[in-house]
Specification:
The chain is of the alpha/beta class and 281 residues long. It contains ten helices and eleven strands.
């Protein structure tokens, strides 16, 4: 069959989807590339801001958008894949040195947030439930959220956790204990269109979700499981220290013994001993 041209939106949301030096990458992009091989797609990646991509998907200007959070409101505009790829949540970031313990510490503060994001909506509902009022400072991308926090233009900012922790390596910001709106991230297509794309995704994802050796499982581990440096077990460290200490003591004792043997067997020691005996007599 002829290859199917598929226009796929990409945006900065590492490690789930982003455009790096080598082109589009991330967990969802790995899956798109696998789907393309299995389903004979010819992917055409379209880079834009998140809010613009949502609009373009609704208009049919792109065919498929990855990492879209499922909500009832969005389900009336888009059709979603059946199997969630990743579960994420919104979190609040602030600049280093600022102290935020609870949501009440944000009352009256200026908060940067991404325009069109479900987490921006979720944050607004979250603070309303506590009777808190914030000045929401809307931006076109998450990088700008972090820049406004770092510059002090905004006291704090809202971001999806997975991307925010990556951006925190680039900007002087830290994550706070405030999290909200956990959501399933899936693939989305325009409502009533491109049903073949969703059907293909559902068929392949259905057999990969519970397979630990599947391309999905391997990619999930690659992009989302934090790599911990190898650690020496405590018992091994203690044993090594004990062996080193014992070796030091044995070596020190041997050195002292050899020194005493040399001192006692030297001619000077014998002469001193004889002179000592004469004095005593």
């Amino acid at each position: 069959a002829a290859a199917r041209d598929v226009r796929i939106g990409v945006f900065p949301a590492a490690p789930l989807v982003f455009v790096g030096g080598g082109g589009p990458d991330g967990l969802f992009v790995d899956l798109v590339k696998y789907f393309s091989r299995e389903l004979n797609w010819r992917p055409q990646f379209v880079s834009d801001t998140w809010s613009r991509l949502l609009e373009r998907l609704e208009k049919g200007e792109i065919d498929l958008l990855p990492a879209v959070g499922y909500t009832d409101a969005r389900s009336r505009i888009y059709d979603f894949s059946r199997n969630p790829v990743y579960i994420d949540s919104g979190v609040v970031f602030t600049r280093r040195g600022a102290v935020i313990h609870t949501i009440f510490d944000l009352d009256g503060k200026r908060i940067a947030a991404l325009r069109g994001s479900t987490f921006t909506t979720g944050f607004s509902r979250f603070i309303e439930s506590f009777g808190i009022k914030c000045d929401i400072d809307l931006t076109d991308d998450n990088d700008e959220v972090m820049r406004r926090i770092a510059s002090g233009d905004s006291y704090a900012g809202v971001c999806i956790y997975s991307l925010g922790t990556e951006l925190a390596k680039k900007y002087p910001v830290v994550v706070t204990p405030i999290s909200f709106s956990p959501i399933a991230l899936e693939f989305a297509v325009p409502k009533g269109r491109n049903g073949d794309l969703i059907a293909g995704i559902d068929r392949i994802m259905g057999r990969m979700v519970n397979d630990p050796a599947s391309p999905y499982s391997r990619s999930f581990e690659k992009w989302t499981v934090a790599r911990q440096p190898a650690r020496i077990p405590l018992w091994a460290a203690i044993a090594a220290a004990a062996v080193a200490a014992a070796g030091f003591l044995v070596g020190a004792a041997s050195l002292i013994l050899r020194r005493e043997v040399r001192r006692k067997s030297s001619p000077m020691s014998a002469t001193s001993l004889n002179e000592g005996q004469k004095d005593e007599s």
